[in-house]
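Supplementary Note 3. Input sequence used for the single-chain structure prediction.
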Amino acid sequence: MRAYTTLARPSLTHIPRLGSPSRSVIALKGHSARLYSAAAEATLQVEDRDRVRWITLNRPKSHNAIAVRDLDDLAHAVESASDDPAVRAIAVQGAGKSFCAGMNTRAFEGLDRAGARAVISKVGRAVGSLRTSPKPTAVLLHGYVLGAGFELALAADFRVALPGTKVGLPETKVGIPSVLDAALLRDHVGLSLAKEMLLIGDVYPIEHLGPHFVNAVGGKEENGLQAAAAALLAKVTDLSPVAMKSQKELNEMWMNTPLKEAIDISIDVFADVFVDPATHEAIEKYNKK
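The predicted structure, written as discrete structure tokens, is reproduced below.
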């Protein structure tokens, strides 16, 4: 029988109501900031620095629980990087003591079937944007990483975490199933543990998910998590964006296509990248090393 410790966690059913309904997003370029809302404090901050788009969930008082109105902003922050040649990678982090405690469950009160579909579709777009972005994506995990916050972690290409980070999918305790990118959990942790996490809804130390779930570990020093993420992403920002885009598209296709068909499609994708001059530049640069 597996031995593990179920850790205390903030109750998803008692996350405080979030603030003003006005949307609030700050876009940062270098050291300048532009406020796109009259709200006093941005609930989502976006900064482009060192060829990385840094997106910060900024509801620290509620462990960055996500309100429905935040979802389109998060999706747009990720998706708008797709066509920006200055951005080579995307990182999502949380302000305060946690990465993200999931959706604010007030959003689910009183929904009918159509309303539930509308809300979860918005969640799906926001979470899925990390998986389907042509740019490599990373999440910086600390504190609590629950529900939709954990799905962001499952969807991203890279996970950078502090030791002792607490993760889980407690939806069944709220009375709803885990959906969307929770489907990736089995590939990350194996079928047995995935079923346990999905059905019971407990919270686990991130180390319980195995040695390969996290790609890099942040140090204990101040900004150690950001430094570890920046070092990891620096390994991809110098690589060909054409190769990154093609490889991510192949990864997505491989997860959704039978093996023989996936191999045949990958041959065409390989040939297609040679149409772009950036491919030849990258090959020449590599061969000169």
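The CA atoms of residues 60 and 96 lie 5 Å apart. The chain has a mean pLDDT of 86.
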